[in-house]
Write a structure and sequence with these properties.
There is one protein chain. Helix 4 packs parallel to helix 8, helix 5 packs across helix 9 and helix 6 crosses helix 9. A 9-stranded mixed beta sheet has the order 2-5-4-3-1-6-9-8-7, sandwiched between helices. It has 2 domains: 114 residues, L-fuculose-1-phosphate Aldolase (3-Layer(aba) Sandwich), CATH 3.40.225.10; 155 residues, L-fuculose-1-phosphate Aldolase. It is 39% helix and 18% strand. Helix 8 links the parallel strand 7 and strand 8. With 270 residues, it is an alpha+beta fold.
Length: 270
Amino acid sequence: MKDILTAPFMVEMVRTATNMYDHGWDERNGGNISLLLDEREVREYLDADRAIRTIPTGFAAPRLDGQYFLVTGTGKYFKNVQYAPAVNLGLVRLTNGGEIAELLWGFEDGGSFTSEFPAHMMSHVSRLAVDPENRVVMHCHPANLLAMTYVHTLDEREFTRTLWQMCTECIVVFPDGVNVLPWMLCGTNAIGEATAEKMKTARLVVWSQHGIYGAGRDLDEAFGLIETAEKAAEIYMKIAHLPRLNTITDEQLHLLERRFGVKGREGYLD
């Protein structure tokens, strides 16, 4: 069999985790990534019929039964993924209606998947219902989006409109806007369920005073969504205390819709 460390999905996962750490989004063991894989590509690199061990997931997800995921580990530092991927990442297959994860590779130190695994899987279910090509759920702690939740109303329409007004590209990159959750206890099924509900209408979900979830068809899309929203939040945090003499108007946002063939979320523009 081929060396799994050379698999395109593994190389890109390691690169993405490293890039997220370098951006300052994933301090210490903050943040997590899950990547849905196709069985055919998995079988090129390992014996998918041999499980190393099983791990209870603590939730049910019949929609994901039999699906394969490459996922970051609990308590693992993103900065170490590039040096020891087999310790900091794991490849699992969900069975028994999603209640059991069979470890097929990784977590060599006896570790397990991220504590946010339920939130990830629930979000995958939501996004797959909207877009069957969705493959990635990504969580991290970008400083400016985090800061914005302290000083900006958490109303989703207003939060989205502010981000759209900060950078010309924003409405083009995330026309579905940004959904927002109030502070909730992390690592629980409750926050996973709330996030999954929000994922039905947007690919970006802000966790107030905590971070953000992004979803996409590949790692680049999910990363780019968060990167664009974070840049907009950075601009907002630099000017929020100043009188705003100019802005991107709704009329101009409509021009961007027509120019790039996108449609801003219904009811978000005048």
